[in-house]
Amino acid sequence: MSIDVTAERLIPLPPGQVAAYAMDWRHDAEWTQGIREAALTREADGGGFGVGAEVTRTAYFLGKRIDYVLRVAAYEPGRLLDMVSVAGPMPMHVTYTFGSHPNGTLAHIRVQGDSSRYYRLAAPLIARKVRSSLGKDLRDLERRLRARR
Questions:
Q1: CA 122, CA 99: separation in Å to the nearest integer?
Q2: Separation between Cα atoms, residue 53 and residue 129, nearest integer Å
Q3: Which of 24, 76, 131, 133 is deepest in the core (most CB within 10 A)?
Q4: pTM summary value
Q5: What is the pLDDT of residues 80-100, one digit of tens each?
């Protein structure tokens, strides 16, 4: 069974500010539910962060520690960050997009995963939890950015 969950929020701040903060892996633990640590464990081919870079995250989900590695598949600073898991308990695809809106930034997160291998029976519960977490992530992103002003 696959999971495909999205969340969207209008954040009344400039897109460049929102995207720069949210797309910086060093801030992952500050605004993303369950993440305790994030580390750049492989640089992009040209160095630094970009396509091919890998971020290792340590998270807690439903009371269980989960370590997983996300590889950057597409990166357009200020607009798009698309990552796929290359190590972890289940295949996952995470996409962050940020677009201009007359009132600020339309921030969007989509998480797709295949829970059939390890968590097949818990997939409906996982989808509800992910949906709730993504909404909280975007709320916390806005709060964090407003506090930095």
A1: 33
A2: 28
A3: 133
A4: 0.89
A5: 999 999 998 888 999 999 999
